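re: ur question from the group chat, yeah i did fold both. here u go
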Amino acid sequence: MSFILKGKLVDVNNNNQPLSAYTIKAFDKEPIIDIFGDQPLGSSVTLDDGTFNIHLTKDSFRKPLEFWESDKEPNIYLKVYDPDGNLFNETPVLSTPFKSYKIPDEINQCETVVVGSGFGGTITSLSLVNKYVKDDWSLSDPQKRKVVLLERGQWWVSHELPSSPGANELEPSKSMREFLETNDIPYRTWPYPDNIIGLTQFLNTIRVVDRRGLYDFRISSKVHTIAGSGVGGGSLVYTNVTEEPDENVINSWDTELNLGINYNNLSKYFDMASGFIGVNKIATTTALGTSKLPKTKAFQDAAKQILAESPGIVKNKPTFDPTDPDQKDFVEDIFAANLSITDIPQRKDQNTLFTQPSPPPPPVPTPPNLYKTVLSSIQSDPKMQEKLAILRRKYFGEPNVCERQGRCALGCIPGARHTNNKKLFDYLKDQYKSKQFVVRPLCEVYDVEPLVGGASTYNYKVYYMMFYD
């Protein structure tokens, strides 16, 4: 059974003014005595309007070393802490009965059901939403076709994402975390497996331990794989390497498997896919200098040895363009991989595009207008227009940068990775696309039944289990 504890914190002595950035912690009070003390259940931070919610499950009330289920009702009380971490107030045991969490009104009929929110499911869903929004523009909302995306896992976000838009002055719109909280959608934050507690949290995210866990470890005779179980699918657990397959590999799909797919008819889509995912080449030095990380040096030494033994095996495309006169003081890194992650040299790219003109000779008091000069170049120079388009694609939608934490498969804390859940979130917060798009987390499909005959215009019935309860 799942519960959601919701409330609003206000200052009754100041016209019920909302209190934001306060921490609310829930506890289960023991009626007599408990050597472990009152059980902490969960916590939340109040938003700008003072609201908060805490998601609880029946396991939240289980005590340490208690491996059985108890039928007793919890005695929940709250502790409120101000933004400085000082205890502000403590409530008595709450007497309001709790109601089990129920999914909002479900769409029983829709045009399309997509199972799984991995790369294939996300791209298919968003492509269909774009088509339906365009084709159904003149229809009323009830008549618009809808896409329902069913995902067995839940949302996973970085704990550094603000819960309130006021916490991020540069991005006043709702963050993913606030969107999930205000819509009562369960989510978890990435664990820190760098100490005993963090390692325990990490192990608890494995699906054999927790059905809502993220990591699905599968073992076969020759290949071991880690699959993702969350909104975003495999994009949440892969290590971001997004390299174009070798031409011989793609051609073998046609010559050996007779799939009708070869490099000539597929290669034109690589740039399109790279633009959708967001691919940048990350150098193998540290973020703050030219020295290499120890693990980077170890991999590069191994790669150099392989390259010496098998010349030509390193297939990375050159990052140096001899036809571009603007590339200066550039040393090519043949081991730099294409990653679906935000690039580091944002300031470098800006300085390359918006080149500062030479200072005028005295006694001119001010330099020429930099932005007027750049605007003139953009209007007349197609190469400058292309550079500006690349700059916007790289940084307009994804401001966070890679900090070289090496946590790509464990969950990027600064949120620099390009993952499918970000693409899905962009559509869910869009005022038009959200009318024709629904994401159902914690819903595992177990059967699809084709409908034959009858008056129904729907061709399939999809059966799935919800893990909210």
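okk and heres the other one u asked abt
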Amino acid sequence: MRTNSRDATLLRALAVAVLLGAATPVAAQPELPPITDADRAAAFPDVGGAHAHGMREDPLDRSLRVDELESQQTDGYDLLAWKAHAWVGRSFDKLAIRTEGEQRGGDTERAELQLLWSHTIARWWDLVTGARLDFQPTPSRTWAAVGVAGIAPYRFDIEATAFFADGGDNAARVEATYELLITQRWILEPRLELDWYGQDEPALGLASGLARSEGGLRLRYEIRREVAPYVGIAQERRIGSSAELVRANGGDPTDTRFVAGVRLRF
């Protein structure tokens, strides 16, 4: 096979380049110093104990939230109602305080305080145990309390608590709320509460069984996250035998109220 002069020239140039590369001496690589104990200590410091994986310390935190501080218009009376929740503690264990009540014409008709220990048992869910004290109506009464609180699917905020008193008396309460964002500042909040009693409660005008429900719809405007005035409507309804007790006394088992108030966070 014959090759033309151009191919021969390229082959000779390639051979010369290979020979020149082979003849060029390779530069000596600098020798690295050995790794000392000081180098190892600087690269892997002993963080020890709870910080062995670089985790930050779980700080002590606190919160105070006044969910409802409102005036309610009902039967020609101005009724003042409140509902607040505070806690102090760390990520998994907290001391929680709940309080709620109503005043009518300056007289306190209902007031309760719950002192609870809250422990995280699952993502978004806490187990709560403690005590509940009813200041009004008199005589005052103390209950043991146990329940759960957390966020259900679709972001429903749930509190379900059972109460036990001396003499075998018991009761239960379930509360559910949901926040519907209309805008970043306008928020519509539906709320439902159900109360059940294992015995008649003459001081409250309630009979045993599922005795009372309260539903509400509140529209608030967050001036900032800590301060949010609102307006809305709330309806309290007596159920079953409790409704019959109200009718027997000439009352209406359904009470609808217009509300206006403010929600606060600290």
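fwiw on the second one: The chain is about 15% helix and 55% strand. The helical segments are 5-23, 37-43, 241-248. idk if thats what u expected
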